[in-house]
Amino acid sequence: MTSPQRLATALSALAATALLIAGCTATPGSATPTSTATTQPSSSPDDDFGDIEGTLLDGGRMFAVVTWGSSTCVPAVDTVTAEGQTVTVTLVDTDADAVCTKDMAPRASAGMLPEGVDPTQDITLNVTYGDVVDDVDLDGDPALAGAAGTPTDYQPSAGWVGDGGLVLLTWGSSGCPPVIESVQGAGNAGTVTFSTDPDQICTMDMAPRATLISFGDDAVEEDGFTLTLVGDNLDGTVAVMGD
Question: Residue 29: which of 172, 162, 208 has the closest Cα?
C-alpha cells in the first residue's frame, strides 16, 4: 500500500487548486460515481505509485480507492464481487481513445459494496487496475449504520486515505462535480470551500461524486475529525470515518 506520507505530500501540494474532473452520468444509487483527481508533476516517478489506498463511505454502503495516473483520465469501478468479507474490484479506463495528460496524480474512484458484506467488520479489497494488483485492508467500524446493498440516504460522507488526506463523497449532478476553492484545517476540524458558478449548465441526474481533499501530513488530528463544507449548495458538516 502507498506510504501515507507520500500520498499526503502529493495531495497537499495542490490542495488549494481546483480538481481536474473525469465525470460520468449516473442514476440515483448507481455504482458508477463521478470521481476526481489532483494533479502531480510527472517528473517524480516512483514504484509506490502502483500502490492503492482505500476507505469506506456512505455509512458503509460504498467504498473508494485511490490510484495513481493521469489526472484527466480517472478510472471507473467496473465490476465488484464478494466472497465473505473479501471484495474483488476491477477498475477500467472509461474511454480507450481518450487523450490523457502525462502527469502523475492520485485519483479517487468509488463503488458500491455488494450485499452481504458487513462494514462493521474488517474488509479486504482485492483491486485490479490494468497491470496493477493490490490488496487494501479496511477496518470495520461498529458505528457504520448503512448496510451494503441498501439504498443511500444521499448525505455527504468522508473517510481518511492517508495522513491528512481524505475522500469526500457528495451527491448531485455528475456533470458538475465539486471544485475545491480552498482548504483549511487545525486540530480535529477543517473547512473546505467549493467554487460556486450559478451560470454552469448541469445534468439533471443524482450521482455520487468522489473528491480528494488534503490538509497536509500531520497538519490535523484525524481522530474525531469534523469537516465543514461551504459553497456549491453543499453547506454542512461531515464526521470523517477512520483515524
Answer: 208
Give the type of residue at 192.
Answer: V
> What is 102-169 written as a DSSP string?
S--EEEEEEEEPPTT--TTS-EEEEEEETTEEEEEEE---TT--PPTTSPP----EEEEEETTEEEEE
Question: For residues 53 and 66, what is the distance between their CA atoms, to the nearest angstrom?
Answer: 5
Phi then psi for residue 7, to 5 deg, are: -65, -45
Rounded to an integer, what distance in angstroms lies between the CA atom of residue 117 and that of residue 216?
32
Place 24 in a pLDDT band, splitting at 50, 70 and 90.
very low
| Mean of pLDDT over the chain | 83
Report how far residue 205's alpha carbon sits from residue 58's, in angstroms, rounded to the nearest whole number. 18
- What is the DSSP secondary structure assignment for residue 18, as one 8-state letter? P
Residues near 98 by beta carbon (within 8 Å), at least 6 away in sequence:
72, 73
pTM: 0.81
CA-to-CA distance for 190 and 148, rounded, in angstroms?
A: 28
DSSP class of residue 9?
A: H
Query: Which three cell numbers mark 146?
Result: 448503512
pLDDT at 38: 44
